[in-house]
Amino acid sequence: MVTLKDIAKQCGVSVASVSKAINHMPGVGQQTAQRIRDMARKMGYLPNAAAQALKTNRSFNIGVLLEDDDRHGLLHHFFVSVLEHFKMAMEEMGYDLMLMNRTIGRRTVSYLEHCRHSNLDGVFVACIDFFHPELQELAAAGIPLVSIDHTYKGHPSVYSDNVEGIRKAVKYAHKLGHRRIAYISGAPAGVTARREEGFRMAMAQLGLEVPQEYRVFSRYRDIKLTQKATARLLALPTPPTCILMPDDYASLGGIKAIREAGLRIPEDISIIGFDGLPTFEHAHPRICTVYQDVKTIGTEAARLLLQRIENKAQPFEESPVIVPVRLVKGDTVAQIAES
Amino acid sequence: MVTLKDIAKQCGVSVASVSKAINHMPGVGQQTAQRIRDMARKMGYLPNAAAQALKTNRSFNIGVLLEDDDRHGLLHHFFVSVLEHFKMAMEEMGYDLMLMNRTIGRRTVSYLEHCRHSNLDGVFVACIDFFHPELQELAAAGIPLVSIDHTYKGHPSVYSDNVEGIRKAVKYAHKLGHRRIAYISGAPAGVTARREEGFRMAMAQLGLEVPQEYRVFSRYRDIKLTQKATARLLALPTPPTCILMPDDYASLGGIKAIREAGLRIPEDISIIGFDGLPTFEHAHPRICTVYQDVKTIGTEAARLLLQRIENKAQPFEESPVIVPVRLVKGDTVAQIAES
DNA sequence: TTGTAAGCGTTATCAA
DNA sequence: TTGATAACGCTTACAA
């Protein structure tokens, strides 16, 4: 490995000068600096990240916390899509992403400890039990952090305009003649509350009733539970004509239940999902869904986190950044006669 | 941050002793060692990864190379599933995973350079253009490396038994009466060659003809291209009764083409996919597919890489580890009368 | 403008 | 058994 010392020797200068030249710092002559940089390039010099981190307390590493109950966070398409864009934006600024865990050597530690051990400059949090005590600890520790779909006090966060998303879905169903609209919630969480709020508001604004039985509960990405919830709705004396699903993936369960009940989509029953990821874009039927702008969410998250890292003292946008959503009509909502 | 020095001061011993005690090295008395360790725990000591890496040239970090043409490697369900299991196995051994890229600060560098800069102990390679010159460079550099679905000379690798997988699929179709079986290939690559080989062999063994027109080409995960390829097959004077798709995801395109031709699955035409990931387990129709054992693949990859890292001098398994596959019958292959 | 030197936290050698 | 010390590669305050 080529070190500053090697370059210094070759150029007949001190390591200090080499360091300054390479980092474009003042305190070294134009020509010497150029000569040093040329030599560094010629010798294939690369800074040693460990040495830099040790000296400067900056690792240019960002921790990624993406872990659900089954420890399979990387399989959550929505969050991974956001992560992908977050990653690109961070890379452009010279940061690397590290998948966080809870071990150091053979020892089990907390996320915060792992953070400190690895000298992480910041953390990206998504798709995890946000209320886990270890996350509270992490958020309280003052390490720069950005979260998706949840807001920690004193930290920036980003999420879709969930209220507006559900509202758009309800309005669209209403426009096509639907009056009996049901909502299957995901597991309790900030997003869920906002979506439920959006549903309540939209229905109220349109002067529509929401019978208690139309409010059923499932979990995000849970096909089985969503299948059951859908079956329950279909079995009602007066079933809904349109069902809002927790998300596109979970809607596979809903679709199954509907098929098993001998009904057709959308002729007999309409459904609307949430997420709008490309995976389902080509599925049949193409689901009507609320598209979440993963690119903007990821990019904004990167921007906010960088701001926290690089201007640590500065004040920042405490309130979450809300990213607009878009309704994708698909073909799972039918025009029906008003009842 | 608590350092060895702090502990040394508290215990009234030297840093050297503290280091030895904490790392369970000989050269420090039983009791002193215990006293030191107790104090370390009490003070919340955590080793500084950067300092350790600088000193030992071991970072306990593994680079992950997962990047397709669109730079969206993280969205490839199969590889991410493998990665998930690889990650769990590596974490257990105290390693962290870092998503590799090609920047250091504002500079663009090669993967190898990034490796050296970050002192990575090894690299996990999957889902990437394996023949990219930078990967050749990386493989040639002698950094411990393990790859999925491709073998680099001098490095361990893991993949499914593709030959047997396709053979099982063909045999199953044959058993249900199919004789006119077509295969849509993914993009040229090692896996593709092996699957094509499996197809050729299985068909030959069963004494079945493979008309030239039954060998069409698409790309993995490419819905549009697979749709076109399928349409081409369906338009033949004597179309196949069963089509093997590049993978489950791509098969969405095939399904679309079949539907657009006014045909039903499996009554009019049967299809078989590849991968068998949970995502499609609940889709309708449930595709008949070749299940790849992502857990074993990921775990084996971890084992092989660790072996390379920790016994660098030792010889190792040069030949790829082949993981058995399983046929999942689903319901997209119909029993038909022999023609 | 240039160089000297200290120090980041750790490991490891060698002498006491 | 213990500790002093050098070294890993880098940055930076300060001296020349």
Q: How many DSSP-defined strands of chain A?
A: 14
Largest Cβ-defined interface = A-B, 55 and 55 residues
Structural class of chain A: alpha/beta
Strands side by side in the biggest sheet of chain A:
2-1-5-6-7-13
- CA-CA gap between termini of chain A: 77 Å
Helix residue percentage of chain A: 40-55%
CATH evolutionary superfamily of the largest domain in chain A? Response regulator
- Poorly predicted residue ranges of chain A: none
Mean pLDDT of chain A: 94
- Specify the CATH architecture of the largest domain in chain A: 3-Layer(aba) Sandwich
Characterization of the model:
- 2 copies of one chain form a homodimer.
- Chain A folds into 3 domains: 4-56, 434 Repressor (Amino-terminal Domain), CATH 1.10.260; 61-160 and 294-323, Rossmann fold (3-Layer(aba) Sandwich), CATH 3.40.50; 162-293, 3-Layer(aba) Sandwich (Rossmann fold).
- Helix content of chain A is 41%, strand content 15%.
- Chain A has helices spanning 4-11, 15-22, 30-43, 49-56, 77-92, 111-117, 133-140, 162-175, 190-205, 223-234, 251-260, 294-310, and strands at residues 61-66, 96-99, 103-104, 107-108, 122-126, 145-148, 157-160, 181-185, 215-217, 242-244, 270-272, 289-292, 321-323, 325-328.
- In chain A, the strands form 4 sheets. Chain A has a 6-stranded parallel β-sheet with strand order 2-1-5-6-7-13, with helices on one face. Chain A has a 4-stranded parallel β-sheet with strand order 9-8-10-11, sandwiched between helices.
- In chain A, α8 (162-175) packs parallel to α9 and α10 (223-234) packs across α11 (251-260).
- The model of chain A has no long low-confidence stretch (mean pLDDT 94).
- β2 (96-99) of chain A pairs antiparallel with β2 (96-99) of chain B.
- The structure holds a DNA duplex (16 and 16 nucleotides).
